[in-house]
């Protein structure tokens, strides 16, 4: 975990859940779900770091 983990009191829980969602999709062999989960995680991380761009 990087800098974004310290950006808010619940950020670590959010990061862990996002990583679990990615892992579940990968284990299930669902590439589309994995890609969606990665995109959600990267968007969330960008927002936490104040680097958000329009979706």
Please outline the helices and strands.
Blueprint: H1 11-27, H2 31-48
Please give a structural write-up:
The protein is mainly alpha-helical and 55 residues long. It has one domain (8-48). It is built from two helices and no strands. It has helices spanning 11-27, 31-48. The radius of gyration is 12 Å and the shape is flat. The two termini are 23 Å apart.
The beta-strand count equals 0
Question: Which ranges are low-confidence, i.e. pLDDT below 50, for 5 or more consecutive residues?
Answer: none
> What is the overall shape?
flat
Report how far the terminal alpha carbons are from each other.
23 Å
**Cα-atom radius of gyration:** 12 Å
Structural class: mainly alpha
What order do the SSEs take from the amino end to the carboxyl end, as H and E? HH
Number of domains: 1
Q: Give me the number of helical elements.
A: 2
Helix content: 55-70%
Q: How big a fraction of the residues is strand?
A: under 5%
Largest β-sheet summary: none
Average pLDDT rating: 85
Short précis:
By secondary structure, the protein is an all-alpha fold. Helix content is 64%, strand content 0%.
Descriptive key words:
2 helices; 55 residues; mainly alpha
